[in-house]
């Protein structure tokens, strides 16, 4: 786990006057699930596209196993893009066989791999079904199978759960864990889903506006913003959110109070015990609480604490 497989050194990418990636420096270890977390447009996809050689940086350098990314052997990386890339009128089995043949996988070995992939991704009974007849979840699982049929050392998954139903998402998550735990693959995962990043990633890079804000394990990231709970509130007069936020932020043992998507997030020690005082402060501002919930810190709270905005904005 301590061996570095991918290293980005001062990677920057500009599109005209827009800087999508801004001096990115990070190392990804062999055999880990590495998550890129951030809102849409944060630079996640551009960053990983550069790191696997799909896009050239404006400046900076990417090394894979110590070599320049453009010198890496064909087949080292498997890419499962956010947009489905499938042949509509091939069956699942035909699609996988064709992809394997493109990577020069020996025929007898390829057939075994295809059968295993169909089984692992619950597509065996759809092996002879053409792509146009598959559900959205099945298509996404086939897309993943095509990305790994040649047994790549590194697997890139760009928003793999986008649009999936809960059952398909569970199958996908279990397979991603299997890639790491049973096959020793390095998996790079981009997502804006909090629970996906938290449950799957060994380490997470939080990115916004093309900059790396934090890099650590999910547990350490959540610990970093302090202990305590988060109170989420919707007020009867949202125009007074800022006034109430100011009142709450100076309350004893309140770590922070911010407005997110029209609601207030108050992070505090013993939040339940402080609810009477919190509600009293709201009423003193001339409004009342319409909805209230108390929960533990999440990765989204980490992001809010870093940027003052929600991950989905």
UniProtKB/TrEMBL annotation:
Keywords: ATP-binding, Membrane, Nucleotide-binding, Transmembrane, Transmembrane helix, Transport. The keyword Transport applies. SUPFAM superfamilies: P-loop containing nucleoside triphosphate hydrolases. InterPro entries: AAA+_ATPase, ABC_transporter-like_ATP-bd, ABC_transporter-like_CS, P-loop_NTPase. The keyword Hydrolase does not apply. Residues 6-234 form the ABC transporter domain. Its main location: membrane. PANTHER family: LINEARMYCIN RESISTANCE ATP-BINDING PROTEIN LNRL. This is Sulfate-transporting ATPase. It comes from Methanobacterium formicicum (strain DSM 3637 / PP1).
């Amino acid at each position: 786990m301590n061996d570095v497989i991918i290293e980005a050194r001062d990677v920057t990418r500009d599109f005209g006057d827009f800087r999508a990636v801004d001096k990115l420096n990070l190392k990804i270890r062999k055999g880990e699930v590495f998550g890129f977390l951030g809102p849409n447009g944060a630079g996640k996809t551009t960053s990983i596209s550069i790191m696997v050689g799909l896009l050239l940086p404006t400046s900076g350098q990417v090394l894979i196993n110590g070599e320049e990314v453009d010198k890496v052997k064909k087949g080292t990386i498997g890419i499962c893009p956010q947009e489905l890339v499938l042949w509509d009128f091939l069956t699942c089995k035909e699609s996988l066989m064709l992809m394997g043949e493109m990577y020069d996988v020996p025929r007898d070995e390829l057939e075994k791999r295809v059968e295993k992939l169909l089984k692992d991704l619950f597509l065996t009974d759809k092996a002879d079904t053409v792509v146009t007849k598959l559900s959205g979840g099945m298509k996404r699982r086939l897309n993943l199978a095509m990305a790994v049929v040649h047994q790549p050392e590194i697997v890139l998954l760009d928003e793999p759960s986008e649009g999936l139903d809960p059952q398909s998402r569970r199958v996908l998550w279990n397979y991603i864990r299997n890639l790491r735990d049973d096959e020793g693959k390095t998996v790079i995962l981009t997502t804006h889903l909090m629970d996906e990043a938290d449950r799957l990633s060994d380490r997470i890079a939080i990115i916004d506006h093309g900059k790396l804000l934090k890099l650590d394990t999910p547990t350490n990231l959540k610990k970093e913003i302090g202990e305590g709970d988060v109170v989420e509130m919707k007020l009867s007069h949202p125009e007074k959110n800022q006034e109430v936020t100011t009142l709450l932020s100076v309350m004893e043992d309140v770590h922070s109070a911010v407005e997110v998507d029209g609601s207030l997030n108050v992070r505090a020690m013993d939040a339940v015990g402080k609810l009477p005082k919190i509600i009293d402060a709201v009423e003193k501002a001339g409004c009342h609480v319409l909805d209230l919930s108390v929960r533990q810190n999440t990765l989204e709270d980490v992001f809010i604490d870093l940027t003052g905005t929600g991950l989905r904005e």
